[in-house]
Design a protein that fits this description.
The chain has 3 helices and 2 strands. It has helices spanning 2-36, 38-41, 51-82; strands at 45-46, 49-50. A hairpin with a 2-residue loop joins strand 1 (45-46) and strand 2.
């Protein structure tokens, strides 16, 4: 029973690690690119809009959606690694 408990503990520890990494990426893109580095990014244009504006309005949303798919892929691998995948 303790082996199963330690397996579950390791699974959640790794899950939380990935979650914080992905949320950190999203934070850097949304807050960093959209607010902190806006003036520097505004020197470039994407689709006729300043890049800082684009990140603040659209970029962080696109990155978040991509990170959702990355999280699903990572979790599927993690589930298989620890034996929690559906059979």
């Amino acid at each position: 029973m303790s082996d199963k408990k330690s397996n579950a503990s390791a699974y959640w520890k790794e899950n939380i690690k990935y979650l914080f990494i992905l949320l950190g990426i999203w934070f850097v893109v949304s807050y960093g690119a959209g607010i902190l580095f806006k003036d520097t990014l505004d020197e470039f244009r994407l689709g006729g809009f300043k890049l800082g504006f684009w990140f603040a309005q659209q970029g962080s949303i696109y990155v978040f959606v991509v990170l959702i798919f990355v999280y699903v892929r990572i979790m599927n691998k993690l589930d298989k690694k620890y034996g929690y995948d559906e059979k």
